[in-house]
């Protein structure tokens, strides 16, 4: 326990503190008087020109006016070009904008000959095009302080680019060029294949990533059974010819959307239409079918713990908002986490799963998860535990899932808390300019 200082010691401490404060203020004033040439001048002992104010104008950049006290929510506008390409935009306050090209194409459209193509195309997203070298692409993105990235999943390829609103025309032109006109040079393809093999080898050793892939391969019959993490043998078969054929078959106009946040819609259409209106309208392959059949997958691994997932189908997918919202509340209600995650949002003492970590030392982590697609999805519980404790932890996971369907096992306070957490997560994603979907 700390005790307050008293007597002469306290007086002496107070006097010393006062003298120290006076000395600091005097030194600060002295430095300010001697640093009229800026911080760099004071640091080097030389005088330099005064630093510009933090709000000085950049040539060619227009800063929007300050926000009003009340800002109306941005409205989404959609324009469909004659060839079927959709252009969508939403206004938003602030000086930045985000532009993305989204293609309804992923691992579900791969064949045995093209397994791994979407992941390789993601790696090649901002490399050499027919109009720009890779160095020029990187320099043009960096010259305006932009940030570009690409991602690939089972049903969607996305290419996004964010920067100041002033540079929106340049952003659209570079982004469309990278998506439509990849040069796919042999040496770049081979280099990215080597990089992809290294990344996938690392991902396949990640229990959470590997289990999700295993759940799809064993739980589905059809396109969703295609691995997102392709084997090394499959990747080795890929080359420039295979990628070009895959692009021609799948990157067609009805499956492409250009979406932007924080831009004027009419201006966006006037810039993007000449760049997108000549994309072929061929429908390509039909939408692949997938049927959930259930199953079991096991693989031996050199690890002291056993990772397992108990999951089932989430019918409806993105196209049925009610089912998706229900799954989000269930995930928040179950919560979960590991030994060191008690302080994370939604993973504390109010979670139904995390107390199991505290009750059973054999459980290292346990949490609910979901993976949703357009028409279906997977919902379940993932846990990491000691091998001998696997039968018990399966019983515990099944008990928690059963309790959610049992009247009286979830009180109103828990339900309202889970709803609030799910709403918070959804609203947080909607605040992000890059969370724009087809």
UniProtKB/TrEMBL annotation:
Q: Which residues form a coiled coil?
A: none
Q: Which organism is it from?
A: Triticum aestivum (Wheat)
Matching PANTHER family = METALLOPROTEASE, OS01G0191500 PROTEIN
Name of the protein described by the UniProt record:
Alpha-MPP
What residue stretches are annotated with the Peptidase M16 C-terminal domain?
A: 238-420
Start and end of every Peptidase M16 N-terminal domain? Answer: 87-230
Which InterPro entries does this chain map to?
A: Metalloenz_LuxS/M16, MPP/UQCRC_Complex, Pept_M16_N, Peptidase_M16_C
Which lineage ranks, top first, belong to the organism behind this chain?
A: Eukaryota, Viridiplantae, Streptophyta, Embryophyta, Tracheophyta
Cite a single GO MF annotation. metal ion binding
